[in-house]
Amino acid sequence: MAHVAEWKIREVEELKNLIDQYPVIGIANLVGIPAKQLQQIRNKLRGEAVIRVSKKTLIKIALEKSNKDGVKDLSKYMEGQVALILTKMNPFKLYKLLDESKTPAPAKPGAIAPNDIVVPKCNTGLDPGPILGELQQAGIPAKIEGGKIVITDETVVVKAGEEIPPKIAEILNRLDIQPLEIGVDLIAVYEDGDIYTADILSIDEEKTISDIQKAYRHAFNLSVNAPIYVKETMPYILQNAAAKAFNLSVNAGIITSKTIPLLLSKAYNQMVSLASTISKIKAEALDEDLSKRIKRKGKVTKKKTKKKEKEEKEEEEEEKEEEAAAGLGALFG
């Protein structure tokens, strides 16, 4: 039986204890990160998370020895220069923090473009020379203008997921275009038995918030119109019910303390309308007071100046309240 180095045994035990200690365990790839930047990231995470670099085989063994259900499945996501990130931080917050810590980096031959690499339309500031031919050979439209090399159209030189050719990398560096990013790539995170991969952790916050707000509005409207009784919608359901009950009372002529003013106003208008119809058939059938009301009602319908309309409206409202009962008696008495 082969002898296992003592330091490896200690390393596995330390890794296992860390994995069991923290609720959130991340697998990260540190390939291409300079030591200086990695130290800056460690400092940024100090007190929030622990970054532990180790051999893949030792990390895998530690994951298998851990008491956490399902954490061993993180070993499927180990690639590149693997590190464990252990924290109590929400996985999405951790991903965002690491993503924001990334910095632009120059193009490297053979590197994979994370996004489409675009050379913009611009004045490069470069003097005429061999670079002009190199730009044109690379499919980048360029010419000399005002003694400088000018790129005349925006051009995609490398599509997302493709390798950066050496010549393109050289041109991008000459143009001071930094299409790559240096930083910790969080590949997958374990929390409470679930594993979240980078594509899940990378979210558009504005769109997510907008979607949640939209879903809330739809649920709220459904609750009010269904109706579904919850504390958020109860005031609106009650208001809606009160409004419908009030309209029903008015239209059905149900007398309550709230409907009396509208019912009297409605009766008054109906009385005047009926009296107007009667007056056209037999004017003498109406008494003098009712005839005056009809004439006054006719005047109200005519076009008025703003001042006169306001005065007559106030006068009419006062007379309605005082004479409604007398008017009903004049019509039916």
Automatic annotation (TrEMBL):
Gene name? Answer: rpl10
Key word rRNA-binding present in the record? Answer: yes
SUPFAM superfamilies reported for this sequence: Ribosomal protein L10-like
Task: Name a single GO cellular component.
Answer: cytosolic large ribosomal subunit
Supply the Pfam families for this chain: Ribosomal_L10, RL10P_insert
The protein's role, per its UniProt record: Forms part of the ribosomal stalk, playing a central role in the interaction of the ribosome with GTP-bound translation factors.
Determine the domain of life of the protein's source.
Archaea
Q: Which GO terms describe its biological process?
A: cytoplasmic translation; ribosomal large subunit assembly
Region ranges (Disordered): 297-333
Q: Where is the composition biased (Basic residues)?
A: 297-307
Alphabetical keyword list: Ribonucleoprotein, Ribosomal protein, RNA-binding, rRNA-binding
Compositionally biased spans, kind Acidic residues: 312-324
The entry's family comment says: Belongs to the universal ribosomal protein uL10 family.
- Can you provide one Gene Ontology molecular function annotated for this UniProt record? structural constituent of ribosome
Which protein is depicted? Large ribosomal subunit protein uL10
Q: InterPro entries under this entry?
A: Ribosomal_protein_uL10, Ribosomal_uL10, Ribosomal_uL10-like_insert, Ribosomal_uL10-like_insert_sf, Ribosomal_uL10-like_sf, Ribosomal_uL10_arc
* Occurrences of domain Large ribosomal subunit protein uL10-like insertion (ranges): 107-177
How does this protein assemble? Part of the 50S ribosomal subunit. Forms part of the ribosomal stalk which helps the ribosome interact with GTP-bound translation factors. Forms a heptameric L10(L12)2(L12)2(L12)2 complex, where L10 forms an elongated spine to which the L12 dimers bind in a sequential fashion.
UniProt-listed CDD domains = Ribosomal_P0_L10e
